[in-house]
Specification:
binds zinc ion; nine-stranded mixed sheet; GMP Synthetase, Chain A, domain 3; binds adenosine-5'-diphosphate; 2 domains; Rossmann fold; alpha/beta; 21 strands
Length: 430
């Protein structure tokens, strides 16, 4: 099913022509109407007239999150010519936040993208979407809310948390779709299991839109099995209008990037040079339709790859692989490069384990992986636990090349997360 079949299936040459037209317009505009790009172009000697084809994108300087912070709050804002109707900030980890302004057209565009995304997964007017993401400065909940309203389905703006109430809403109003983080989905799956709720019999859920943080294919399968839903991966970032930048279609083989709105590149994060399709690197995005605050060649730090070739669904917009983490998520433990997602993949594939885990780095360079047991597997037999523990240690060592200390903990004893989960605690004295 299509929301806008013409644009979603636009032949590549026409799509690329449209991209070039929009890119040139954006570049001219930021050069004359923002403080930041005027300066940046002057410093780097870039001239807007240098963009003659899409390949010339490489001549443009990158924009980084440090640039956004250094030019806080409005250095990247286009002066005048539009109504500013919204401000979001993105927390990040250090120092000042990033301020992101939206015009009416920007909010409409974000809603339009989400309407495309939801329709593509088979959602329609008859559906009821319980939006279990955080409402507020975070773009995740609000943009999906607007997109779903645009599509004309009923939205329950429940926000995250209060699982008791979430369940009641789901039961009383026959919610068919939910939107939430993977960590809250895992927590909620535990919650209903403890209540003895059988989602296939007692609930009307069909689909779950899961994003805002990285998760693995194994986690997807766990959520699908536990909640009786089809899980669709959704990706976005506040700098690019929030969610709906890339979304899975029914084929569930990667996320389509709406290329009439965004230009994507994958670069080697060390050299900044482009890598060929299919090869992993850092995603760089350029907004083509943002009115209030266009951002060029934004280094997302998200690690992914472009999937070569057409998708069975017929859309011409290219797809991204599941994001495996941020380039700055990488941990260096005893000289080895370790991504938290590698650990998650192993933990989620071992039967007998629960759905919550925590990676602690301590002392000189010690890694401790704490993982909850599942309720069912906890039979009190010490030798079973010892065996499970050494099995996990071995599998982790084979994957990450470091032998962690594994601690099995009681179900429900690790901190539960409703928003973005904190999976790593680094207290090393290095
Ligand atoms: P903040 O930067 O404050 O966390 P954002 O909403 O802008 O707020 O977060 C965007 C980031 O969230 C992305 O750059 C990416 O790292 C992560 N993210 C969002 N969706 C996904 C997803 N489906 N898979 C993996 N990571 C995701
Ligand atoms: Zn597709």
């Amino acid at each position: 099913m299509f929301w806008d079949q013409e644009i979603e299936t636009l032949p590549r040459p026409e799509l690329e022509q449209l991209q070039l037209k929009r890119l040139r317009k954006t570049v001219r505009k930021v050069a004359s109407e923002t403080v930041f790009y005027r300066q940046k172009f002057a410093e780097t000697g870039f001239k807007p007239s240098a963009i003659k084809s899409l390949a010339d994108l490489r001549r443009l300087p990158f924009t980084t999150s440090a640039d956004l912070r250094a030019n806080y709050p409005d250095g990247l804002l286009i002066k005048g010519g539009h109504d500013l109707i919204r401000l979001h900030t993105s927390s990040g980890t250090t120092g000042k936040p990033k301020a992101l302004f939206f015009s009416r057209k920007d909010i409409d565009q974000a809603a339009e993208n989400i309407a495309r995304c939801l329709t593509m997964t088979g959602l329609g007017k008859q559906d009821i979407l319980q939006n279990m993401m955080t409402y507020g400065l975070f773009t995740g909940a609000l943009m999906v809310h607007y997109g779903a309203e645009k599509l004309g389905l009923m939205v329950i703006p429940s926000g995250p948390g209060n699982s008791e109430k979430q369940l009641l809403l789901m039961q009383d109003f026959r919610t068919t779709a939910i939107h939430l983080t993977p960590s809250y989905a895992l927590y909620f799956a535990d919650f209903i299991e403890k209540r003895g709720v059988d989602p296939r019999k007692d609930l009307a859920l069909r689909k779950a839109y899961i994003g805002a943080e990285p998760y693995t294919e194994e986690t997807r399968r766990k959520i699908e099995a536990a909640l009786g839903v089809e899980v669709y991966n959704c990706y976005g970032l506040s700098e690019m209008n929030g969610p709906g930048v890339a979304f899975e279609c029914d084929a569930k083989q990667g996320m389509h990037v709406w290329e009439d709105n965004y230009l994507m590149e994958i670069i080697d994060p060390q050299t900044g040079e482009p890598v060929p399709d299919g090869q992993t690197g850092e995603l760089v995005l350029t907004s083509l339709c943002r009115e209030a605050m266009p951002i060029l060649r934004y280094r997302t730090r998200d690690i992914t790859a472009i999937i070569p070739g057409p998708c069975p669904c017929g859309r011409t917009h290219r797809r991204l692989q599941r994001i495996t983490g941020r380039s700055d998520d990488m941990l260096i433990v005893r000289g080895a490069n370790v991504y938290p997602q590698q650990i998650e993949r192993i933990l989620m594939s071992i039967p007998g384990l629960g759905r919550n885990y925590l990676i602690c780095l301590e002392g000189l360079d010690e890694m401790i992986v704490k993982v909850e047991l599942s309720d069912a597997s906890f039979d009190g037999q010490v030798e079973h636990l010892v065996k499970l523990q050494s099995q996990i240690t071995e599998k982790l060592r084979a994957e990450i090349l470091v032998r962690p200390k594994v601690e099995l903990v009681m179900p429900g004893s690790l901190p539960a997360s409703e928003g973005k989960a904190k999976r790593v605690i680094d207290k090393r004295i290095l």
